[in-house]
Amino acid sequence: MSGFYRTLERHVLSFFQRLTLSYSYYISNELRNHAAAAAYYMLLSLIPLVLFLFYIFDTFLSKYPNFSEELFYLLYTFNENISPKMFRDLGISGSAGSALGILGLLNLVWSSRLILVSIQRAFFVIFPSENKRNFVMENFIAFIILPVVFALVLLLAVFSGLKGLIIEYLTFFNMTGTLVVQGISIASSVVAVMMSFMLVFASFKYIPVKKPDNKSAAKGAVLFIVLYGAVKFAAFGMFHLFSVSTAYGIVGSVIVILVWAYFVFMIYLYCAQFVFVCYRADILILNKLFSYEKPSPMFMRMNSHLLSKFTRKLKEGETLFHEGDKSYDVYYIKEGRMRIIIDGRLVGTVGEGEIFGEMAHITQEARSATLQADRDTELLVLSPYEFDEIMKDSYVLSRRVMSTLCGRLKQTDAALSRLNTEE
Questions:
Q1: Could you tell me the end-to-end alpha-carbon distance of the chain, in angstroms, rounded to an integer?
Q2: Which of 4, 101, 206, 299 shows the smallest number of beta carbons within 10 Å?
Q3: pTM of the model
Q4: Residue 29 gets which letter from DSSP?
Q5: Any idea which of 371-380, 397-406, 411-420 has the lowest mean pLDDT?
Q6: C-alpha distances in angstroms, 370 versus 6, 193, 321, 351?
Q7: Is the CB of residue 120 less than 8 Å from the CB of residue 207?
Q8: Of residues 386, 321, 327, 382, the one with CA closest to residue 360
Q9: Domains of the chain with CATH codes
Q10: Count of other CB atoms within 10 angstroms of residue 90
């Protein structure tokens, strides 16, 4: 059982570490500004969306009068003022309604593209890539995908309303019971969650130019569902408590919609950052380790499983590589000490928390010294690709490597000068 608890502890600590890393990147990437831009464009899209919906409703009113009665019964569950009379009073029926609907559709496509542009810019920050999406794919995503997203969101809302309509019908025929109502509610919730998951998963997987793996995208989608549900539960309680929309009328409703959209986009972008952290976890954690000389014992404990994949142990006196060898791995000393030997003479040492071997990788030349274990030593061994990936993500590590190189060259020159003087 102790092994089970250690494994469980490691997974829990690893999860919270990824949450913390995601938050630090979320703040440093200033994703709140991107969320605010997306929420603002979402607000702009509401009017064309309403006009387009009016066009759809007007079409059904004129062509399917039998269906319209059921439709308005459903809409009545959302707002008692929605009725055919409201359409006539607003002058949005007939040819005028068609014109407004077509205009609303065009504006909806335009505003949808603005939302996607803000999301794409955020994703370019979250998932940095040297490549760019081609013009055709860029516009396909902009003009096709987001209208589909609006349609799916609308479908979810309609599906939620249908749940109440079904329960009303079953009540009329005396077919309702506790189990029936709970079954319908559970089924509707499951369908809504599954559709939301697939939608968020697809966006995390396919919108970034540099695509994450399926497992990481799925983790981010699950986290979004959980956080969205928690925030929705808390937010609706606050809205009912303060009655903002009632107190300020239409202006209050607009404020509520804007604030809600802002929080949803913040959660969405945070979860996107979580996806990045999940699929780049090894590089990001090694980045933290290499950037600081003395990581905390908690950090080493949380990441012991990951670090074991890169660990190599040397016995006292064992040689890691010889002067003149052509190898380009980079090393980090977890524990112990290594001797630096040039031309058979000891010129220095490297100890715990230090990086070495980077000079051969950077210059692509043979090893300039022999490295030998001064005592039992544990090393982290990184391939040139892994080291380059870490360097890309950290200016702190880049500065540390340059400082280490300069200091080591100065130390070696001083040692060689002293030895030559002694001779």
A1: 63
A2: 4
A3: 0.71
A4: T
A5: 411-420
A6: 39, 59, 6, 15
A7: yes
A8: 327
A9: 11-279 (no CATH), 283-422 (2.60.120.10)
A10: 12
